[in-house]
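Hi everyone, sorry if this is the wrong subforum. Our group has a chain we'd like a structural model of before ordering constructs, and none of us has done structure prediction before. Sequence below.
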Amino acid sequence: MSRQPLHKWVFFHVPLMVFVVGTLFPFYWMLVTASDPTASSTDRGARSKTRRSGRPSRPSSTRIYLFKQNDVRDLALEHDVSSRSCPTLISLFCGLLAGYALARAPLSAGRRPRTSIFVTYLVPPTLLFIPLANIIRDFRLGDTPWSLILTYPTFLIPFCTWLLMGYFKTIPKELEE
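Answer:
Right subforum, don't worry. Here is the predicted structure as tokens:
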């Protein structure tokens, strides 16, 4: 073997394989543990056989039943759609109104609100988490979809306003007149 292919193999292919295996291993592990038939079993013998082989022998009948049960799936879908579509619509509506108003405001009158929207957009979400957690706790909304519906717009409205303000600035005023 010449020096060039060995050098390429050691410094390119080996790190690439390590990276690919390290990237794909969590997905493999999720698949294995999700379809493990003994995950909820207390039988140590069956569990150790599955763990030794590294892969499940068959999917769990309990998990298959949960996927086939319509009530659970429909309720989860309903909560999922409502907790994502409501904040999105609220944020788009507020962002649309604020973005248009700030884009069409005169330069001197709109400078301070534009700057405050931009600064609000730059505030890290982790700083907003503590007051939001207190509000959610005070209103006792912790385990309801309303907690998501109320917190998502706090992150989305400044973002939508900033984007739509930039969009409305590109539209010539002559088209409106």
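For your construct planning: The first helix runs from residue 3 to 34. The chain has seven helices and no strands.
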